[in-house]
Amino acid sequence: MEPPVKETLRNLFLGVLSRLIRLMAPVGRLLPRHIYTARFMARIPSADATTQCDGPVRIIGSGCITLGKRCRIGRECEFTTEEQGEIILEDNIRINRGTTLTSYAQVRIGTFAIIGEFTSIRDANHGTEMGTPMRLQPHTAAPIIIGRDVWIGRGCCILPGVTIGDGAIIGANSVVTKDIPSHTLAAGAPATVLRERQKRHP
Fold it and tell me: From the UniProt record, which GO molecular function terms apply (predicted)?
């Protein structure tokens, strides 16, 4: 017995609709990314069409934020610039989800750097003198310089005044309190150099 016309039309409609949904799914995933990127570009004049934001990015303060070409920012990242603060991202940088960059002086990140999820990069701290509540003391700040081709693992904390040399690797959950030489692997709390990176042999 043939199914009723209404049921046949319903099945046909659902079949066509499901195919359209499958075809449009990639567009649906990309559209929010373009919206978040457009919002970011509206706030950061130096960001251009090569910038990509995977989700919402929070921007706080009135300091200067400068981006190079082809930077990709993960969702739920936060950029804060206070007073004379400046954040400079060079070209081809990947900053992953939930990372916080805070600058009262300067935070500079070099070309091809990778910053792991939920990392904190902050160039300032509250004062710690006795006699005045720390919350009421002025901040002390010192620039943070992260070199080219640096890989900072997930959950790291980069403290004021630190320079991380070109090609260095910082292990996950490390606290970087002092300079890390170029082309070394460092990890721990506080981070210490474990070894030098090795060249690949043919």
Answer: transferase activity
Run of H or E including 189: none
What the chain holds in terms of domains, given with CATH numbers, is: 5-196 (2.160.10.10)
Whether 126 sits among the annotated catalytic residues: the reply is yes
- Residue 1 has what DSSP assignment? -
Closest among 97, 63, 54 to 81, alpha carbons compared:
63
Question: Active site residue: 34, 126, 183, 201, which one?
Answer: 126
Q: What is the pTM of this model?
A: 0.81
Binned average pLDDT, 10 residues per bin, the chain of 202 residues? 64 67 55 80 86 92 93 96 93 98 97 98 90 86 97 98 98 98 97 91 66
